[in-house]
Amino acid sequence: MVPGLLVFAVQIFVLGFSLIILWRRFFSPIKTVPGPFLASVSRFWHLHHIIKGDQNLQLINLHDKYGHFVRIAHNEVGVSHPDGIKKILLAPLHKASWYKFLSIPDYRYQTPMSTTDPKKKVERSRHFAAGYTMSNLLQTEDSIGSVIDQFLAWLDRSAESKKAVHLDKYLTFTAFDIAGEVLFSKRFGFLKEGRDVGNAIGNSLMLNLYASTMGFFRWIHVILIGNPFMTSLNVLPSGHIFDTTVRALDDRLNNRDRNRFDVVDHWLKAMEKNPGQVLLRDVYAAATGAMGAASDTISCALQSFVYFMNRHPNAWERVRGEIEEAQRTQGLCRDRVLASKEALRVFGPVSMTLPRLAPPGGLTIGSKHFPEGTILSINPWVMHHSRELWGSDAREFNPDRWLKDDAGELDRYFMPWGQGYNSCPGQHIARIELSKITATLVGDYNIRQVDKNQDWQWKAYFTVVPHSWPCYIERRAGNELSSW
Ligand code: HEM
């Protein structure tokens, strides 16, 4: 009797599973969108490449093969159509449920990033906006400067030693320590200790992988880990970054009369001004979310700048020439800014697709109509590597493209920060950091990769952080060009 029931249950399961596969492949409203077979019936093709760490390149390959629309999962279409950014990211479309994962440690800790309804997201962001305005951020310049000084002291020691060093790691340490200073006036101590304290950066990479995959199975995460019960037990290793963030916030709450500006201070003011609307829990959530968003991204952008400058025949010399000219005339060093922008284009920090839902009535892009509820996503790497949008040299680092007559047109497709209502609120902080650090690197140092022919390594999860490309550092005396 029992084996008979078991066989029946297995048969029902196999039948149900087969029907789902058949429906997704042959009857789904997006059945005609081309893509890999596994992607047409499940999320597994995408998950496989997230875990492998090459989703960015695979998505580019798929669009090269199939064109503007590619089925990357049974319910998701990747879009590279020139109108895609305008119709998907710049419109007030709901974000896909993947974003809901981004409330850490559990679902009570909502952030603007985890809020999928555009109106509610904008409302939530409004409370946190003061922390990100340029005028307020400029007041953090001194604390950013003091972390950069610590980084430069390490560069000087590295130059003196004449040994190969891991610039990648120290750029990551710098990015994390600056994030701590800007957000809550406390650095994590990575630069001081010269190591990944408590394996915090290693853990952050694992969280990056966990979030980018488990976001598709949030219910499992909520049952197992992301629930108030597990949070109350306090048994999960929270790690150095989370602990330091919480300690810094607690410390701030007990010392509110300090005369020091940082981002969290504005958020606590918003909490006082809007009792019941902004809770202390929201501030904790926003601070940990911003920590995650503010460090890997900056490390990638800085590494990308140095790595690609080294692969360009005369980029360093040109930028230095411009800096000297700018120093004479007090002008802007345009070449450095453009090289940094081009580095963000060719190897941008965010490698995940940015998914939105087709609205009631569906959405038409080009000649293709997608019914309500279809997940439509834009991937920054796919857009930035499109030959249709950037020309035949789309996959090369070429800062000169930003000097051409059509550069204004190119800006429409430039999206390292995302675009629209969910775009990065930390852009000003990022620009301040990037411009300060790249200016010093270009002006005061020669940096050479130990083996110029060796590719760096990276895994493209939500963000992509390169590593393992040791360098030699040389301090420039005066304005001479590299002897290398
Ligand atoms: C080069 C550096 C950076 C890049 C390329 C970058 C890029 C992005 C992108 C693409 C998104 C998501 C857009 C979407 O899902 O549609 C995002 C979100 C976010 N970024 Fe950045 N980011 C950078 C630096 C920073 C910094 C320094 C902060 C500072 C705190 C920051 C804070 C955030 C936050 C809080 C979000 C979540 C969205 C929200 O709360 O509205 N980012 N960023």
Automatic annotation (TrEMBL):
- Which residue ranges does UniProt annotate as crossing the membrane? 6-23
Which InterPro entries does the entry mention?
A: Cyt_P450, Cyt_P450_E_grp-I, Cyt_P450_sf, Cytochrome_P450_monoxygenase
Query: Cross-referenced Gene3D superfamilies, in alphabetical order?
Result: Cytochrome P450
Q: What would be an example GO MF term here?
A: iron ion binding
Binding locations of heme: C424
Pathway involvement? Antibiotic biosynthesis
Q: Which UniProt keywords apply?
A: Antibiotic biosynthesis, Heme, Iron, Membrane, Metal-binding, Transmembrane, Transmembrane helix
- A GO term (biological process) for this protein? antibiotic biosynthetic process
Q: Which cofactor does it need?
A: heme
Q: Does the keyword Heme apply?
A: yes
Any matching Pfam family: p450
Family (UniProt): Belongs to the cytochrome P450 family.
Q: What is this protein called?
A: Cytochrome P450
Task: Recall the taxonomic lineage recorded for the source organism.
Answer: Eukaryota, Fungi, Dikarya, Ascomycota, Pezizomycotina
